[in-house]
Amino acid sequence: MPRINAFLKLGRDQGGSDIHLAVGTPPLIRLHGDLTPIKYRSLTAKEIEELIDEILDPVQKKIFASGHDLDFSYDDPETGRFRVNLFRKVNGIGACLRAIAPSIPSLHDLGLPPAVEKLLHSNQGMILVTGATGTGKSTTLASMIDWLNTNRRYNIITLEDPIEYVHKSNKSLVIQRSVGIHVDSFAAGLRDALREDPDVILVGELRDPETITMAMTAAETGHLVLGTLHTTSAVKTLDRIIDAMPTEQKSLAATFLAQHLKGVISQKLVRTSDGRNRKAILEIMINNSAIASLILNGKVFQIPSSLQTGREQGMQLMDQALLEALQNKEIDPDDAYLHATDKKQFQRYVSNPDLLPQINLAIT
């Protein structure tokens, strides 16, 4: 049994989302958003190397020895499944191991709004799930794929780096491919997927212009494309896609978004009111004629006003979603305040006065 399993099992049993191994500190668990050390001695560089070496296969050892970072999945009957990122830093190697839930949560389990399922009724176009690292994008996408797998007879191809949740084909055929193992890159995987009779393609990350262009092509040619970006709002997502393209292609990108983008889901994880968990809070943009017109006319900055007034269509700003969850006593008021954009409307809920702006009462 690999010795690292003891730390992984402890982290999972305590409800941690990530386990961190770093030289000079004990193993750390991210618990409800905060890093907490395990009661253990500080790890040396040699100890971490030995712990990690036990779970690498020969190919992975060769890749890491060549100086590259390494992303892979570790699955063990005793500890469950983990997504692993292995890297080098100043004083040795480090690792982050993300715990993957043993079963895929449903959209209902995650408490996602009905608008998310409504988007999945589209049979072509692009749906984007965005957010900072560690905000649950992969879990939301897994739930969306699971809904399609349960309710539609599709050929679903996923391109992931690495594969996190493992899907078993239900009504749909689900083919999962890992970048670096089954395909060389997301762009290469997309080119291959278009020859494999897909109905739905999941792209783990739209990380470069080539991948974005290939994903656009797939959406334009009658496929449903799900993808992610590390952006924190609908406006920033649209700006990122347009800005990523060469100057001569920016107008084409805007036209594509106006015509084929179905919606953008931007999410954050906010501590629940009891402090024992975190809840996904979503900003939702659903493309309609008004939003399409703003995109085409270069007025993306006006989209928040459309989201604010589009509640009947399922749209909402992040601050609206935060305030609603706060009023329903689903999330911690101090955490809601920290995540809010317009903090004024959240000030009266804050329990920790140190978070509020300090008024200078000094007489000059």
Architecture overview:
- Helix 8 (234-244) packs across helix 9.
- The N and C termini lie far apart (69 Å).
- The strands form two sheets. A seven-stranded mixed β-sheet has the order 9-8-10-11-7-12-13, sandwiched between helices. A six-stranded antiparallel β-sheet has the order 3-2-1-6-5-4, with helices on one face.
- The longest helix is centred in the middle third of the chain and has 15 residues, at 137-151.
- Helix content is 33%, strand content 24%.
- A hairpin with a 2-residue loop joins strand 5 (80-89) and strand 6 (92-100).
- Residues 359-364 have low confidence and may be disordered.
- The relative contact order is 0.09.
- It has helices at residues 4-13, 45-53, 58-65, 114-119, 137-151, 186-193, 209-220, 234-244, 250-260, 289-296, 303-308, 318-327, 333-339, and strands at residues 18-21, 28-31, 34-37, 70-76, 80-89, 92-100, 125-130, 155-160, 173-178, 200-203, 224-229, 261-271, 278-286.
- The protein has 364 residues and is of the alpha/beta class.
- The protein is globular, with a radius of gyration of 22 Å.
- The chain contains 13 helices and 13 strands.
Strand content: 15-25%
Based on CA atoms alone, the radius of gyration comes out at 22 Å
| Physical arrangement of strands within the biggest beta sheet | 9-8-10-11-7-12-13
Strand count, sense and barrel status of the largest sheet are:
7 strands, mixed
Q: Helical content, roughly?
A: 25-40%
Uncertain stretches: 359-364
Helix/strand/pairing category: alpha/beta
Order of helices and strands: HEEEHHEEEHEHEEHEHEHHEEHHHH
Total helical segments = 13
> So what's the oligomer here?
single chain
Got a strand count? 13
Q: How far apart, in Å, are the first and last alpha carbons?
A: 69 Å
Please, what is the average pLDDT? Answer: 94
